[in-house]
Amino acid sequence: MEGSEGRESFCPPVAVAPPVIALDAEPERVDQPKRTVMSRPGNGTSGRGITLLANHLKVSVKCPDEIFYQYSVSITCDEKRDVNIKRIGRKIIDKIHETYSSEFAGKKFVYDGEKSLYTVGPLPRNKVEFTVVVEESSAKHASESPSDNGSNNHSSKRSKRSLHSKAFRVEINFAAKIPLKSISLALQGADAENVQDALRVLDIILRQQAANRGCLLVRQSFFHDDSRNFTDVGGGVMGCKGLHSSFRPTLDGLTLNMDVSTTMILSPGPVIDFLLANQNVKEPRYIDWARAKRMLKNLRVKAKHSNKEFKIIGLSERPCNQQLFSMKVKNGDGLDNGGETIEITVYEYFTKHRNIELSNSAYMPCLDVGKPKRPNYLPLELCYLVSLQRYTKVLSSVQRASLVEKSRQKPRERIKVITDAVRDYSYDDDPLLATCGVSIEKQLIQINGRVLEAPKLKAGNGEEVVPRNGRWNFNNKHLLTPARIERWAVVNFSARCDTSHLSRELISCGRTKGIHFERPHTLIEEDPQNRRAGPVIRVEKMFEEIIARLPGPPDFLLCVLPERKNSEIYGPWKKKSLTDLGIVTQCISPLKINDQYLTNVLLKINAKLGGTNSLLAMEHASHLPHIQETPTMILGMDVSHGSPGQSDIPSIAAVVGSLYWPLISKYRAVVRSQSPKLEIIESLYKPLPNGDDEGIMGELLLDFYRTCNGHKPAQIIVFRDGVSESQFSQVLNLELDQMIKAYKHLGEGDIPKFTLIVAQKNHHTKLFQASAPENVPPGTVVDTNIVHPRNNDFFMCAHAGMIGTTRPAHYHVLLDEIGFSPDVLQNLIHSLSYVYQRSTTATSIVAPVRYAHLAAQQFAQFVKFEDLSETSSGHGSVKSIGSTSVTELPRLHMNVSDSMFFC
């Protein structure tokens, strides 16, 4: 479907295909107006009313005419220019605060800890320069002591240490005025300048309050050093509960959005205990010290014997009882600068000269807390990890499951945590906020919501399925269009699974759902000798066995993996089956085989093989408002990024498009790799030198035309996931422009009408029932009170929150050329949460977005390999984007290109 042949098939059947429009035939006008986010056209009215609480607190501003003055802060020193404030440490910041107070007679200010300072009203001068001198103590000679020998009576020892001063030059320059009135204008619906800057200053004030209390700050969340907030998730890692706060402009005025937040920290306490937990070993002799060195580097520890804090730079090369350093002695037993120099071990120094008993450090390395050329060794058992140190590595599946289990909060519990925090921490008790007349109410805001009626579904044999509380089942019901499975096989990478029993139960369950299942052609167990090989080799060996045993390509392969999640076999298996051989597969790792588990597996298998599990009743009857009469294409778009710290891992852009209009339940995915951490999709339109377009959008447009009896989409509804408000303009202009160019490239003149919606789950608004302890019912929608004062947005809880507190989806309608009424659009979005073929529950966000997210995640498994070309096909290649090399993803095999493989 690529190239010129595909473009011809998109056009109406004629004797000669019309020529493709040249790329430069219609030059873009320089003065083409930029699209802006649409205003709210009104509010919905459908559904039954419900009274809710939201985790927003009303904020009043009595002095709206005040002005914040922003000053840029530059700090330099002789050793390094443009010093990173965060690396200098709290001591420098305190010195700067002291200097501000004396220089400006105690004038109140807020400092963001990096490059900006804010005051209410101007400082006496627009530019100020001064020097901050910081004195640091250090060993007189690098070899003099293995440690910072501080103690409670070390006045004499201080004399043997030198003080070296480091001067930091501070320059403060006026940068901008930020009127608080911009918030008032935004609340009135005006597109006010500086509103985000003013809100940011208010947020910084709360952050500085938290910093002064010794909290760990992570973006707009802060975490107190309170063990009651810590929960152990294993591996020496803890979940730390804190609070998120952000000022938000809403229809009801300015509010403070407060929510419970969680970050990961290292377990504070003895370093040796942390290492044992981190490496899951019982005794120090089993510790992998190379791995320990990587883990400990740059962590902060406190020495038990001196109560001083240090940063770890590495480990000693030798054990504590062998690591030597030079020490000057007098008469062989006393410290004296004029004495002779002897070689002594760190262990002997602490046990004999410091009289500190070391019970288990002798045979372990020491911590090096000095500098690269001036080591300073401390025995491991004397060191404790300082609290509130972030853990930013990827959690294991076990840790993630533990975190989810232990951090759940029921609605009433979450409400109590928030209201207690507001009462106890007195957020509006701040001099700067008082100057502006800002006060914060102590109770959650009460709002009005509506509960939409769940759509009915159609199953097989004309039966109707009525969801209850966002859930339904196929008990005693057939799937709408069940697949026929004749030639298939089971492959088993897991030694603990009985594949014979599994296949019998799967066939039995499938037949009750209407799926025609023959017995598997063969059951293939992995050769035990292959289990020690790498994952790619294991997969290659298994496929060699499959080809040898089967008379031809199978309809389907059931693959049993040894681990439920993050199996190293999954990526190579999917790549081989989907891109090299074109075989539909389903991976499982069952812990318990029962009807519910098998039904969920069968839903995925049926959808992948072209069957349909269920449809919306109104979709089945072609009664979809705005859609049944006009060819309409629905897109879901998402970008998946590498884990934090993996800056060289390509991002994966996935777009799914609807097929078989007027249906809205069938989708196909197109996936591309792009520059790491890039959120805006760059390959929606990708013209080649030969005139072809190999972009995502063109491929999906051709699929729509092919499956919709030659119809071209006159309307396109786009659901975009994963972008923040600051990126709305890029989605609305850059991405939408690419989609339009792709459509024009196919030789079409009339551009479809677009409705562009951003779907967010990564936000902090929660909804609660005002008069019941349970989560809000599925179908709850809010488009008043806490929504944006101007933009067209709303919150929706389409799913049933069975555990913890429900997080609503936040939908932002950026553009609506189709002209949906609020009720029609909200009901369409609600209905799209019931068409996800993988489950029998309403999803928390529309199915197209869920599919795009899943497709991006699955293809991200392919780029986990260090070298894609190590597989037999060698499909992986590298493209260069700017200065960054990006691994190109292999394309799906033609046999499965139309499959809903991501199911």
Automatic annotation (TrEMBL):
Location of the Piwi domain: 556-864
Pfam family, one: ArgoMid
Domain spans labelled PAZ: 270-387
GO BP, sorted A to Z: defense response to virus; regulation of translation; regulatory ncRNA-mediated gene silencing
GO cellular component: ribonucleoprotein complex
GO terms for MF: RNA binding
UniProt entry keywords in alphabetical sequence: Repressor, Ribonucleoprotein, RNA-binding, RNA-mediated gene silencing, Translation regulation
Keyword ATP-binding: no
Region (Disordered): 139-162
Annotated PROSITE patterns: PAZ, PIWI
InterPro entries: ArgoL1, ArgoL2, Argonaute_Mid_dom, Argonaute_N, PAZ_dom, PAZ_dom_sf, Piwi, Piwi_ago-like
RNA-binding listed as a keyword: yes
Family designation: Belongs to the argonaute family. Ago subfamily.
Protein name: Protein argonaute 16
Organism: Nicotiana sylvestris
Taxonomic classification: Eukaryota, Viridiplantae, Streptophyta, Embryophyta, Tracheophyta
